[in-house]
Amino acid sequence: EFMQASWDVEEVQAKGIQHLASFVKDKSAFPYLLSCTEVITLAMKTHTDSLDLQVEGCTLLLEILSQALEQGVMMALDESVASCLLHTVRKHSENEEFLSMLCTLLMMVAASEVAAENLRKVGIIPDLLSILRRFLHNDKICSSCCAVLWSLAVSENNADQAVLASALPVTSAVLQKHLQDGVVAEAACSALWALALRGCLTDSDYEPTAALLLDALRKNPERAVLVKNGCLALASLVRLSETAAFAILLDSEGRGIELLKDEYHLHLDEPGVAEALCLLMNEMVQYDEVMLDMRSQKMEKLLSKIKLQFPFS
Asked: Which UniProt keywords are listed (predicted)?
């Protein structure tokens, strides 16, 4: 009430946020802090010129959201909160250090479908792409933005098809730049999978995107989620084009199928990886020439092993 009575007084908002932050360590205060997110974001929107207030507000929201995720509480932040966050993003789009924190916050917010939809409605996608282009070197910003992109792209809404299509070059650039960084590569592979599912690729994109995904698998073989999402992305590409299937067979190192076999053996206890591989194989055998090549590489042996290992799946 104290903050709401004096929106225009920056010192009141700063003191209010600082006082709320003092309750973060008190577990019993958590339900009350949850109800303060709108007040905090509105204070940030009203005083966007104050970087100190932005940082303190963002830090507090991160604390509240972290606790919410730990306790399995999904915070469906409404459109006004999404609008406030976008306003902050635009006002401080050059400040790399603050953006890094802000993009982490957006990633946590987008974990809720409702909040992700609200971010999409206020038009955040072009801003995310702009941030990625400007800060391609920043691993934290890249992983957070790709995770948000994934959350927005998997939504059922088709209103952003044209905007999402422009996300492919920059998402590919992120993966190319951070191939060796498992966290970023995982987020980028997920984003590429969502873009492929939404049909955001053209004929000239299938081969280079498939090759890039194979590289990501090759460089990060131990990351089960990356392998699973990479295979699902490849399956989406193969479903759309035989070119992608041939890109796997004729991979630059000539070991596309061997790579997939290796990944299966590395993640024997991961049903998600086996399922994604089976989905990819199922798409590949739709093309006669591809199937003949897979036969010559004894893929049925691998499929028999998978069948034996997961008889009830």
From this structure: ATP-binding, Kinase, Nucleotide-binding, Serine/threonine-protein kinase, Transferase
